[in-house]
Amino acid sequence: SELNPTDEVTVTAWIKPKSPSAGDERIVDKSNKRGGYSLYLANRARTGDGSAELYLAGQIGDGGNNFRNTQNPRLAPDKSHFAAITAVSNQKFTLWLDDTKIHEENIGSMQAYTGALGIGESGFNGIIDEARVYDRFLSPTEISDIYHGSEPNRSGLVGEWTFNEGSGTVA
User: Which of 3, 66, 114, 119 is the most exposed place for a label (fewest CB within 10 A)?
Assistant: First the structure.
């Protein structure tokens, strides 16, 4: 299926998180621990006062329990960001914040997850806009172009949610 790529995937969204909620906050998620993909905010308790901090995180299911996270940079509430993950099966996984690569590592063979795709699930506290899923790897130049306001090459675009309807709670 189009939303179940196993060779290459890119997931992008504009986000404006509010104050952290109690748990991780899914931006675009079509995963379980064995397959699929997820772009989300990870909440981590701070030492001292115990308040939470938000970090961009991602997951590509390659048959193992593969959580991919970076602890830097911390996201300030009420500030807009461009968030993305790109992955190529048996090669690499990359996590992007705005137009900066913040994490990269090798991955195994990507596995499909046939469950539903969710946007803003698990208590996402904030705004999500222009969520997209591609069944191809977007290059660093394409990620930067989207961040700087250029319309991306739409080849491989298999899902797009612009949230331009102006009302409602279901995409």
Answer: 114
Query: Considering only CA atoms, which of 2, 12, 106 is closest in space to residue 62?
Result: 106
CA 39 to CA 25: how far, in whole Å?
9
**Which amino acid is located at 92 in the chain?**
K
Tokens of 64: 């193992």
Q: CA dist 84 to 29, 42, 52, 115, 167, Å?
A: 12, 14, 22, 21, 25
157 φ/ψ angles, rounded to the nearest 5 degrees? -75, 115
Gap between the terminal Cα atoms of the chain: 20
DSSP for 50-84, written as a single string: --EEEEEEEEEEESS--EEEEEEEEEPTT--EEEE
Q: What is the pTM of this model?
A: 0.88
Per-residue pLDDT tens over the stretch 83-110: 999 999 889 989 999 999 988 888 888 8
- Residues 2, 22: Cα–Cα separation, whole Å: 33
